[in-house]
Amino acid sequence: MTDLSVLPDLVLGPLAGRADADWYLAPPGKWCPAQIVQHLTLVLEYSARTFESRREREPMRRRPRSAKELIAYFLVLRMGWVPEGWRAPAAMRPAEHLERPAVERQFREAVERWLVLQRELLPARRADLFAKHTVLGDLTLPEWGRFHRLHCAHHAKQIRARLAG
Question: What global pTM score does this model have?
Answer without folding.
Answer: 0.96
